[in-house]
Amino acid sequence: MNNIWPFLWQLIKLGIGAVAVLLFMMTAVLYIVLKLRWVIGKIQSRIGPNRTGGNGWAQTIADALKLFQKEDIIPKGADRWLFTVAPAMVFVPVYLVYAVIPFGDGLTASKMNVGVVYLGAVSCMAVIGIVIGGWASNNRWSLLGAFRAASQLIAYEIPVALALCVPVMIAGSLDLTEIVGLQGGGIQNWIIFKAWPMIPLAFLMLFIAELAEINVAPFDITEAESELVAGFNTEYSGMKFALFFLAEFAESFTLAAILVTLFFGGPSAPLPILGDTLTGAWGSIVSLLWFIFKSWLLVLVILWIRSTLPRVRMDKLMNLCWKCLIPTGLANIMLTALYIVFWVNK
Amino acid sequence: MSGFGNWFTSIAKGLKLTMRYWSPLEKPVTEKYPEEMPKLPERYRGLPVLDTKPDGEAKCVACGACARMCPLGIITVVPSDKKTAKEFTLDASRCMFCGMCVDICPFKALKPARVFELAAGSREEMIYDKEKLIALGKETGERSNTI
Questions:
Q1: How far is B129 from chain A, CA to nearest CA, in Å?
Q2: Residue B41 lies in a domain
Q3: How many domains in chain B?
Q4: Would you list which residues of chain B are within 8 Å, Cβ to Cβ, of chain A?
Q5: Residues near B1 by Cβ (< 8 Å), separated by ≥ 6?
Q6: What is the CA radius of gyration of chain B?
Q7: CATH number, domain at B104?
Q8: pLDDT tier at B143, thresholds 50, 70, 90
Q9: Site from A297, A308, A315 to mutate, B interface, most B CB atoms within 10 angstroms
């Protein structure tokens, strides 16, 4: 009975952390969606949302509220139980990824010594939810979307894993906090500037493969609107659709966060003077701001690509994965290994 | 395999193009019409309206050429005894903006208006008299007030 209080306190702390991460995720998603619409508007020489809340800032909040009050429709022929479970199956892995991302000094929800493996393992669980959702909808578009998701996402797991290996080999650790720690103390320590050309190649590969993994254009063939209505989420509406939507855009931020963590020094400042010298609460806040800033730049790049490139055809997508990314990834790992053996540990 | 080189160059080209549109220097082509007036072209061809002399009187000498020229017969000119139009009406609801009255006028007393907001609640309101046509002729096509 004596040791229940520390345990309870631990639970409360975990709960607060979970809610904080969830809130952060929601805000990030709402703003990313809004920014996406602004960016696409600008690139298409339009204005984009400019009515709600004066200059359009409240547009996605209004959209979210609209989705929440919509009728929750389950089609007659659908498998009710699987249909209901699928959005959660997609959302939860995306949420779980945030547990290991080091947002700043002492702002990692869970320090894990196999963080990178966890990242790869958890983020590929979302495909199960997509396949279940497509199957349970009892709709041919959904099913086709689910089939495509199965072939695309599972194929792209391999280049993601291969590309993840390279920075891990260079850093010599699977722990994300440790990888970030190695990159502290200025821009010259960031992993992206080490071991040319293996690391930049790995970065490019990881970026392309993760774009396919998180289903954004030009690789959004699982929900290709011009062919499949909306792909696996054709039959979804209201809250369930909102969960899919939330997961999709949260993944954009996750991708940026992973890339920043592995290649761009995570929460450390580009110059030590700009915040690495701070400690305590201020250190945490400044490093968090740096992390968000760097991730935001990468999110902008994702939005830029998303609003530029047309959708890739299914077979071309598979060609890119199996004939280009996987051989390159294997060769890259070999080169990195040789580099480490003959150059670093000579 | 041969296609991958092309992929990257064409992707780079596309990204470069969209980056140009994304830059803050580029203005969107969208016109925010009710909030901001669109900029009318210099030779905008609107409804034919009456031009005025410097003293504010209409240039019209009531020769009636426009009324005879009008394919729809929507212009009526009633001359006064001093070579000015006593009455000049134009049914804007039927005008097709052909501009033949403007072309035929020997004294350049008619000109295309720089106005396009001509909506009205009834057909009778759309029949413009001399005062209304002179007032429309003084419009510059710019509006400072916003909705």
A1: 40
A2: no
A3: 1
A4: 1, 4, 11, 14-15, 17-19, 21-22, 26, 28-30, 32
A5: A323, A324
A6: 24
A7: 3.30.70.3270
A8: low
A9: A308
Q: Which residues on chain B are in Cβ contact (under 8 Å) with A300?
A: none
**Taking a C-beta distance cutoff of 8 angstroms, is the pair A171, A178 a contact?**
yes
Sheet of strand B127-128, all strands in order from the earlier edge strand to the far edge: B75-79, B85-91, B127-128
Is B4–A324 a contact, with Cβ atoms under 8 angstroms apart? yes
Query: Is B31 within the bounds of a domain?
Result: no
Query: What is the three-state SS of B85-97?
Result: EEEEEEECCCCCC
Residue A12: how many CB atoms within 10 A of its CB? 10
SS3 (DSSP) at A278: coil
What is the three-class DSSP state of B110? strand
The length of chain A is: 346
Residue A27 has pLDDT above 80, yes or no: yes
ipTM over 0.85: no
- Structural domain includes residue B61: yes
Q: Pick from B11, B18, B19 the residue to mutate for testing the A interface (most A CBs within 10 Å).
A: B18
Q: Would you say residue A13 lies in a domain? A: no
Model pTM score:
0.78
* Minimum-distance CB partner of B14 among A39, A309, A323: A309
**Counted domains in chain A:** 1
Q: How far is B108 from chain A (nearest CA, A)?
A: 41
Q: Convert the pLDDT of each residue in A184-236 to its tens digit.
A: 777 777 878 777 788 888 888 888 888 888 888 788 887 777 778 777 888 88
Residue B2 has pLDDT above 60, yes or no: no
Which one of A35, A40, A45 would you mutate to disrupt binding with B, by most B Cβ within 10 Å of its Cβ?
Answer: A45
Using only C-alpha atoms, what is the Rg of chain A? 21
CA distance B15 to chain A (A): 6
